[in-house]
Amino acid sequence: MAWKYGNVVLKVNKGWTDDDGTQHPSQWVTWTAERKTAKGVSWEDDPTPLGSFDNFYYYGWNSDGDALLPKPLAKLKIAKVKEAKQTSTNYLSRTDWYVTRKSEANTAIPSGITAHRTAVRVNYTTLKTAIGNASDIAGLKACYATVAGASQTAKEIDATSSSVVSTSANTITSNGHGFVNDEQVYYDVGVNSDDEVAAVIGGLVNKKTYYVIATATNTFKLSESHSNCGDEAVVSLTGVSSDGDAQKFTSYGKPSAGHTFPNPDMPKYNS
């Protein structure tokens, strides 16, 4: 933004000379709007900046600045499949030594490791299929989108109550919770009456994310992995919390396949 005389930017508190050779004082900025106009001085706003864009998907804006120029969809798909394969490789490389040990020493691979490696491959296949099915850039982006949950408010429960935490049905009761299947939720035990970290619900891990499964209007169950991994299973709840009467489940939204690779730190993969 600047004051200008023609194409010349005028500096505040500095004199200037017009096209007729007339010199104007440094106090010109105090002139009235009418006098500035009469002397050919005008205020010019900066050009409206074009919106930001993802340069993976687009070259940039067109010459009119009203539309983005997309990159070829086929090339974008190839790049995304390559990226997905690399993500899978990164996960699998952490446990490749178990496979090598099995081959060289015939030592059994722990079942949890095998389960995680299988889940990685299944999620990769799901993501690769979704990428292949994308008909446009919006569809390709959707493979990596996370849809906001029905409720952005954390659901607080009294985890000490057996009517809330059912160890027989493996359900958690929260009236009108609004969660949907495959929605990711973050579990936080909070603090007890002594302002200390409260005890967990048996079977869960504090400050871990889970996926909602088998929802009903007022109850839901939890899984340690997304259905995209092919091994979604209800977590067994083994007991109520001894002192956590204000524990929370906060929605992180419902992720697409690009964000559902299995977490190797979950208990089901540590056997």
Summarize the model shown:
By secondary structure, the chain is α+β, with helices and mostly antiparallel strands. The chain is built from five helices and 15 strands. It has three domains: 2-44, no CATH class; 70-142; 147-255, Beta Barrel (Elongation Factor Tu (Ef-tu), domain 3), CATH 2.40.30.
Written account of the structure:
By secondary structure, the chain is an alpha+beta fold. The protein folds into three domains: 2-44, no CATH class; 70-142; 147-255, Elongation Factor Tu (Ef-tu), domain 3 (Beta Barrel). Helix content is 24%, strand content 21%. It is built from five helices and 15 strands. The chain has helices spanning 33-38, 73-93, 96-105, 111-133, 137-142; strands spanning 2-5, 8-10, 16-17, 23-24, 41-44, 58-61, 68-70, 146-147, 155-157, 165-166, 171-173, 184-188, 209-213, 219-223, 247-255. The strands form four sheets. Strands 8, 9, 10, 11, 12, 13, 14 and 15 form an eight-stranded antiparallel beta sheet that branches. The chain has a three-stranded antiparallel beta sheet with strand order 2-1-5. A hairpin with a 4-residue loop joins strand 10 and strand 11. Helix 2 (73-93) packs antiparallel against helix 4. The longest helix is centred in the middle third of the chain and has 23 residues, at 111-133. The radius of gyration is 30 Å and the shape is elongated. The N and C termini lie far apart (64 Å). The mean pLDDT is 92.
